Major facilitator superfamily (MFS) profile domain-containing protein
Amino acid sequence: MPTFGPYFGINGGNPVYEAQVKGDIVSMMQAGGCVGAILINFIADPYGRRIAIFLCSTIFIIGSVVQVVATNVAAMMAGRFIGGMGVGACANVVPVYIAEISDKSNRGRMSNLWQFMLVIGIMISYWVDYACLQHLPVGHIQWKTPLGIQIIPGGIMLIGIFFLPESLRWLANRGKLDEMRKTISRLRVLPETHEKVIQETEEIIASIEEEREGKATRWVEMRKPSNIRRLIIGIIIGICQQWTGTNAINYYAPEMVRQMGVTGDTVDILATGIYGAVKVVVVFIFFFMVDHKFFGRRNSLLIGSILMFISFYILGALLMYIEKDQAIAAENGVEVPVSDKGYAAMVMLFIFAIGYEISWGPLMYVICAEIFPTRIRAICMSITMAIYLAMNAVIAKVTPLMITQLTYGTYFFFGSTVFAMTIFVWLFVPETRGRSLEDMEPIFSGPLIVLKNKEALRQGVRENEMKEKRVPQFDSGSSNNGESDEQDKVVEFKENINDSHGKNDITSQKQQE
């Protein structure tokens, strides 16, 4: 926005200084996100996911208001930090919430909706910027309006959470089993006595019972080798997603487009709007692919990574020649029109977007939400998201400097990091498609190198698929017996929950009798 820099006094003609200040302002949101991702854990576990999401929305709205009224760089950075706390907390708790209310048969697609809405938001932000530049009078209103519009989605989430159910596993942990079973029935659109509702209820109860019988604190449980492995994989996947370079493009797309020779007051914003639209279309298509047995998690990461590092290497090479052409034109005092190389560079940017949105974009949240055990899921997600957002802050800070000083080398750098990620996925990231959240232990207790355990993992997925296909036939009598058995389990589990919370001592009384 043309008046943003002068308003905050950051248009002094020193490109390195301007890049540093821009990096500081942008990265403050990610810095706040690190804090929010950690602190929300102390709300999400004791008070529930819905309360936590309500708090995320409130904090984000406050941060947006501060940004709109900011009159100096310090105030703008404070608003970004506060808003970032809401974003980071939301990025922690929402994927967990989605995973905990989703059926295992479509959990990948449901978790992909998180990424789908993210890219829709990014696309809308690009087009809002474009509309403000095109239709609003030149002045501070051009950049204040987009900042103010942030309040709208925050308000929608703030109100919408009142119409959503609580997490199934949180309800089970709190002993609210009747509410949990009713919620399962509502979410699956099945009667409470349906075999699938009974089966899912039993799986969740068994998982929670096993955790309670272990009598281990969360921190003791986190020291289990299989859980350490899960946490390390989750953290590395989060770090990798940031170093794909996607947020470098999201934050500084107009500057990158100008590197390609696409210039003009609004042309660069228009090009980034098209980039955002491509991302939305690809995520929508991937929604129907993520739970397919061919793609799953692992293959999608590998295919997407290959597309990404190839497109970045080609993009870097094209920009190297574009810069040479621009240097020659500058010496001769002529202006270089957009060349075929510039258009080809834009195509490579779009191919990168395709690769990212069928892999690291949606699957980082899917994998991290589904690999952690229920008892330590919230704290593991907090750690993962805090480190993820810390890397996000680093990317936001260093990218403008990289664009200014490394120029086309920026794309060779990110291409190399994605190539390294491809090797990491091939060696260490297992396939988790088709397994329930309660059935991940065998995956992370096997050999560290995934290929050594590949057939066992495939067999586990096949067994789960066979379980899904088996639908026992019940007559009226057997159905009643099944319901009675399930109710007995619920009553017994309630007694255990009450005993563990100190509300009564039913179990000990039975033992004395």
The longest helix spans residues 298-332. The chain has one domain: 4-172+218-445. The chain has 24 helices and no strands. The domain at 4-172+218-445 is CATH 1.20.1250.20 (Growth Hormone; Chain: A;).
